[in-house]
Queue: 2 jobs
Job 1
Amino acid sequence: MQNRSLFIFSALFLVICACICGCTGTGSTNNPVPTATATPAATATTAAPTATPAADGITIVDDTGATVFIPAGVERIVSLAPSITELYFAMNDENSTTKLVGRTSYDNYPEEALKVDSIGGMTTGSSIETIISKNPDLIMSTTMVDMNTINQLRANGYPVIVFEINKLEDIFENIRVMGKVLNEEKNADALIKKINAEIADVESRPHETPLPKTMYAVAADPMYVAGSETYLDELITLAGGVNTYADTPGYGIVTTESIIERQPDVIIVIKGPMDSGLNMREQILNNKELADIPAVKTGRIYTVDDDIVSRPGPRVGQALEILYSCISENAQ
């Protein structure tokens, strides 16, 4: 029983990493390394990453509280998360002076990302040697990536910026910091304005009355849902719903009895996690214990592309469009 529980929680952690950061579906340590420092701060986290310009580079205090010095003239970038890769391409253009030379095997968007060499998986499968072989000037990651990997890269002298991706505001702050670091501040500002305009457009549309109680499930056996203090909770609200588990922070396992008690009007599920092909919608519809909840009785169980909806990146507007079409279907 203990081994089974450990397996379940390990598997769910990988599912959450894949859903939040996006899922699809992989040298030598003697290369010269750039001069860099990464010193942990006194506290584990900071309110937001900050950037301090200097004549010979820029100093960042990232979301882990680490102080990272990035020399001027950064050119070669490695991304350790799909959301970071999407943001990179969203704010770069033909005049950009940087190049993405490494990305994870989960990075499937935009199409240009597939032309970049893969360094392996996000939480597993990537090796320090493969990353170093790309001879990066800067590595960008998120808090979903194993900190052992981050610390080893920093110990080898590579500047690594780690971003939070838990909230909508994190996306905007990450864009601002990336804009400064990559010398793309104008494009970063334009991207923020674009996303805000897309959000405002969806917010201004009619919503159902009363607002549908909405459950967002990222796994079905056991049932694993998005609660409050998450990016998905914010999207549900913006799309005109009320998160069924708004009183539960983060992501967590819920029981069938809990779902029956809360009576969700809308259930949103993702395509089979980790490309398993699992049909979560059918699992819920075939669960006789859930037959009388509103979402099942009315058939309002929707399967969405988690690469778009669950990945906190530049496609927020598209994610909201998808959720709005599910949650506010009867208001359109």
Job 2
Amino acid sequence: MSSTARRLYVRRDTFPIAGTFRISRGAKTEAEVVVAEVVESCKRGRGECVPYARYGESLDETVKTLESLAGAVADGLDRERLRALLPPGAARNALDCALWDLEAKQAGKPAWRLAGLPDAPKKLTTCYTLSVDEPAAMAASAKARAADHPLLKMKLTGEGDLDRVRAVREAAPTTRLIVDANEAWTLEMLRRFAPVLADLGVELIEQPLPAGEDEALRGIDCPVALGADESCHGLESLSRLKGIYRVVNIKLDKTGGLTEALLLKQAAQESGFDIMVGCMVATSLAMAPAVLLAQGARYVDLDGPLLLAEDRTPALHYDGGTLCPPAPELWG
């Protein structure tokens, strides 16, 4: 193989989480990620993904899938052909973002220009996520973060959630709040919880019911906006969410990369949805492409690196809840 031929490298990395990150489905103390790196001549593009068991993904299978594309990458695989080869998901995300990064470096232009954005990315206000815990512990975390984070996101899990939200609201009386049940509620819980949450100033309830049970929400009179997370993946998932959710949470690991995420965002806006751009617990390399996607979004949830005990170098710069656009040395 020529020294200038395009080559694909795939590796697994592990980063410690600061404490324990807990949602309704379980807890973890490490962020395990997969990195795709495409090298051509002296230029290198990188992308990072988080395989998620909830979607039938694993680290080993993601690495195997990516490694199987080494020949296609050497033959000049581009992002559009990649969309045809792989379904939405983590593996496609890592390689799609690596190709964006490589294209930007080869062209000598920032990725936002290649994406056709009208302006350079601006600073964003990201929420900070409080993992599920006892009410007092969540309140203490909220109090410690409220001064620097004007938007907090609470992970919830079912019975006892109203006590959790009341405790956080008392600890952070002026902070904006959104909550995420991660599919843990029943319809009865939603009907019972939502009026109280509205009174407590909660702006958004993410994914109250399991994905696949969305139709139960159609026509429901909910005083708090509902957002689709686990129910929203690629473009094909959007049509069935109309009339059920007001907000869609777009994540690169679900769409399979920035290419489809940009298309999904445009389609969602044209369909009248508000946009949330979210993330998995991952490093700055995974967040960087999402900063482009999050421009103009109603809600930004790109706090993954803030939950880590250690991030990559170079890293994104956060000033409390303010997220600065990535430097080209990191991505794009």
